[in-house]
From TrEMBL:
Protein name: GerMN domain-containing protein
Residue ranges of domain GerMN in the record: 59-144, 200-287
Keyword Signal: yes
Pfam family, one: Germane
Keyword set, alphabetical order: Signal
Species of provenance: Diplocloster modestus
Signal sequence extent: 1-20
Length: 325
């Protein structure tokens, strides 16, 4: 499985490099439809002029192009023949595409290339920022049976220029709850991780996993929480979680689970805001008090001062207190 993930990741890097070259060569006002090369190892951009302002009509037009290729081209349609696509629907900037059951007949590599081609092509349409795939009405799952979730063009350009299947080490800055549950404490764990995963996803996964046993930090997010999608664009990180995030049983301040994620992600230089969604919806309230409709910025006031940490540590040491999660 790990070898397969590395191959898929490498293909996506090739796709990114090819598409980047194609973008430099396009004339102003032109877009591109992405196809699969003859060997099914990469994507090929073909210039295509998009006319009109009706978003769904443009999406339908491009889907037709993705299912066909020019007669003189030596590459393949991104969407294999026989796969039927239901009527596309939009919810704000979110596009929903439903494919017929035979979508699952593609090999893992071919499916990722298909998905990358569709997303990179359709997100060029004005008003389409994110895309969700379903198959026969059910969420699309990856090779590990996890929901693929919301995708953007950025979902397919992770780690450009590097060996995608290499393992890396990084020191993260993560925020968990303090002992009293009213402030965030800073932790700086060093993690070894696969190049197949983005830093954003790594951070949120570590927050869900919880702090190291025996530390002075406490969990803020239920471990059952699933990441349905995560991407960053123009300084905003879009985090889509399932409903388990809302079922938070911990006796901590209402703000801490939200800002545990926000403050941790905004430690990355390319992120200044975090937009949450639950199962793709933003019109949700966390603990009936915090609206998730608007992006969140870093909140330093919630971080416990170093002086308080030292004082608490000294008090625990004198009393022989053992930290239990």
């Amino acid at each position: 499985m790990q070898k397969k993930a590395g191959i898929i990741g490498l293909l996506l890097i090739m796709a990114f490099l090819l598409s980047a070259c194609g973008e430099q060569e396009r004339e102003a006002g032109q877009k591109a439809v992405f196809y699969v090369n003859k060997d099914e190892t990469a994507l090929v951009p073909e210039p295509f002029e998009i006319k009109g302002e009706d978003t769904l009509k443009l999406v339908e037009e491009l889907l037709v192009q993705l299912q066909n290729v020019p007669e003189d081209a030596e590459y393949k349609a991104a969407i294999p023949s026989g796969i039927v696509i239901g009527q596309p629907t939009m919810d704000e900037n979110q596009l929903y595409l439903d494919f017929s059951e035979n979508y699952h007949e593609m090999s893992s590599i071919r499916e990722v290339l298909c998905r990358a081609a569709v997303v990179r092509t359709l997100t060029q349409v004005q008003g389409v920022k994110n895309i969700t795939f379903t198959v026969n009405g059910n969420p699309l799952l990856d090779a590990n049976a996890n929901p693929v979730g919301i995708m953007s063009a950025d979902s397919f350009v992770d780690n450009p220029g590097a060996e995608i299947n290499a393992y890396k080490r990084a020191t993260l800055t993560l925020y968990y709850a303090n002992k009293s549950g009213d402030k965030l404490v800073t932790t700086k764990p060093t993690k070894t991780y696969s190049g197949n995963i983005s830093m954003e996803k790594l951070i949120v996964e570590q927050l869900i996993q919880g702090p190291k046993e025996g530390s002075k930090a406490y969990t803020t997010i239920p471990p059952e929480t699933k990441i349905l999608g995560i991407s960053t664009k123009d300084g905003t990180c879009y985090v889509n979680l399932d409903e388990k995030f809302l079922d938070n049983p911990y006796e901590i301040s209402d703000m801490l689970p939200v800002y545990s994620i926000v403050n941790s992600l905004t430690e990355l230089s390319n992120i200044s805001k975090v937009q949450f969604s639950i199962n793709g919806k933003t019109d949700v309230k966390f603990r009936e008090s915090i609206s998730l409709e608007s992006p969140f910025e870093r909140n330093l006031d919630l971080i416990e001062s170093q002086d308080t940490l030292i004082k608490d540590s000294q008090m625990d040491s004198s009393k022989g207190v053992t930290n239990k999660k």
